[in-house]
Write a structure and sequence with these properties.
ABC transporter related, Rossmann fold, 245 residues, AAA+_ATPase, binds adenosine-5'-triphosphate, globular, 7 helices, transport
Length: 245
């Protein structure tokens, strides 16, 4: 499997008002062409790790290396971060415009990804006219429109009602399996064991803060996965063993 990026010896301590808070303690792993879930208890440093991978936060030491030099990243946040005064089309086109893509080309690309997430009829709507699930779809389209090689998702379904969350999980998996986007690797942060086993190829379980890697579980189950199968339960048990270790 080709390596997409290497996360090497990442250490991070927050310093505030004379206090220090060690958050990440020498985290290292490689990501190939695969779907990786990062699972860990609340406050252990999952979001911080994702932000360091995205270049939004600086590590104290360690490095993030993109193996093939292509470091285009799409980031899907926990709750939609759409600009309320822009339409769906304008929101999705915005990162492209910010990168200097001419308007016509940016809008063409934005339309492609808006229709991929099923919102072609809503491109002229404003965020307040959309449901929570639709807003998260716009977020997904916006992350994909920059044509990233790596897609980072920070608890992308946790703010949605269970039915919407489940259909978005399946849609993301369908896009991933059919290879209809430029994405070659996904890293998703979650604290939901079921979600990690349902979606990921590999689950990296972190300890409580300061986070170390407690264990890595390979999920070698065909998709779509059957949550009620004994094999699924077995993988869940493996994950829980690392969580309670
Ligand atoms: N900019 C910051 N300055 C100071 N402390 C921070 C900062 N960002 C995060 N922290 C602290 O670092 C710790 C790890 O935060 P982080 O958001 O990475 O955890 P998490 O595992 O994603 O949590 P959750 O599952 O609750 O979202 C927390 O105690 C948090 O309060």
């Amino acid at each position: 499997m080709q390596t997409i990026l290497s996360i090497r010896n990442i250490v991070k301590t927050f310093k505030e008002g004379g206090k220090t808070l060690p958050v990440l303690d020498h985290i290292s792993f490689d990501v190939g062409e695969e779907f990786v879930a990062i699972l860990g208890p609340s406050g252990c440093g999952k979001t911080t790790l994702l932000r360091i991978i995205a270049g939004l936060e600086k590590a104290d030491s360690g490095e993030i290396v993109f193996a093939r030099g292509d470091s285009r990243i799409g980031f899907i946040f926990q709750s939609p971060t759409l600009l309320p005064w822009l339409t769906v089309l304008e929101n999705v086109a915005l990162p492209l415009r910010a990168n200097g893509v001419p308007r016509r080309e940016a809008e063409e690309k934005a339309r492609k990804y808006i229709s991929l997430v099923g919102l072609q009829a809503f491109e002229n709507f404003y965020p307040h006219e959309l449901s929570g699930g639709m807003k998260q779809r716009v977020n997904i389209a916006r992350a994909l429109a920059v044509e990233p090689v790596l897609l980072l998702m920070d608890e992308p379904f946790s703010q949605l009602d269970p039915l919407t969350a489940e259909s978005l999980r399946s849609e993301i998996l369908d896009m991933w399996m059919w290879g209809v986007t430029t994405v070659r690797a996904i890293i998703m942060v979650t604290h939901n064991v079921d979600e990690a086993v349902f979606m990921a190829d590999r689950i990296i379980v972190l300890t409580t803060r300061p986070a170390k890697i407690a264990g890595i579980v390979h999920v070698d189950l065909p998709r779509p996965r059957d949550r009620r199968s004994p094999e699924f339960q077995k993988v869940e048990d493996q994950v829980y063993e690392y969580i309670s270790a």
